[in-house]
Amino acid sequence: MKKTAGEKLRDLRNAFGLSQAQFGDRIGITKGSIASYENNINPLNKSAKYKILQATGIGDEYFDTDMQLLEAFRKYNIDPANLKLKSLTDTIIAFRNSVKDFANNTQTPKFLNTKIEYLKFIAECENAECVFIKVVGKEAQPLANNGDILIVSQDENPENTNWIIAKIGDDTLIKQYLLTSNDEISLKSSSDDSYKFSKAEFEKEVKVLGIIKSKISIEIL
Q: Which residues are in the HTH cro/C1-type domain (predicted)?
C-alpha cells in the first residue's frame, strides 16, 4: 500500500533519530505542525517540503510518488549511514489576499523564495512557516487596518499575550490569547469583547490558524 506524505515524513524523521520537536526545531517547523503532517491532519505544503529539501536533501518526488526512503537516499546521493541535517538559509513565504482567504483557503496562495535573514529583518519572523496576509476592510481591527500586512507564523500553539488568527465554528477571529488562570483562557481584542474558555473547552472549540508575529503598515505617500 502506498504511504501518505505524512507517513513518509515520519519515516524520514525517524531515520535521523529525532523527535518531532527536535526535527521541527532544526528545520523551522513547529512540533505541532510536524505532528499534523505525520498524522495526515494537514497536507504537507510547499513551504514545508522546501524546508525539508534544504535540511535533508530529500526532494518533492519522495513525498509525491510511491518512492521509498531507501530509493530516495539513492536518488539524492545521500548516505543513510551518515545522515546530517544542513543549516537553512532560504525559506518560502506564502501570500494571501485577505484574512478570510487565509482562514478559508479560498484561493491558491502565491509563493516567494527569499533569504531567512531578509525575512527576519523586515518581519521579525525567522525560521518558521510564514504567511504575509493583506488586510481587507475592517477584518483585522482593532489590530490592523485596511491595506496593512500581517506576518503570520503557521503555529497552532500560542503563548500568553500572542495575537492569533483562530476559528470558532464558521467565525474567523483575530484576538489576543491570554492565560487568565491555571485553567482559563481568554481571547480578547477590547475591554468589552472577549471569549473565555477552560483549557479543555479551548482545545475542543477553537482552531488556532496562526500566530501574528508582526505588522507592516502601508501608507501611500
A: 9-63
Its domain, for residue 201, covers 90-216
Quick: pLDDT tens for 48-62: 898 999 899 999 999
How far, CA to CA in Å, does 20 sit from each of 34, 138, 178? Answer: 6, 38, 26
Q: What is the pLDDT, as a whole number, of residue 208? A: 94
End-to-end CA distance of the chain: 59
Element (H, E) at 206: strand 206-216
As given in the structure block, the three cell numbers for residue 144 are: 490592523
Residues 141 and 164 in one domain: yes
Same domain, 112 and 170: yes
pLDDT one-digit tens code per residue, 175-208: 999 998 777 999 998 766 788 999 899 989 999 9
The Cα 84–Cα 210 span in angstroms is 30
Q: Is residue 84 part of a domain?
A: no
106 near 97, Cβ under 8 Å? no
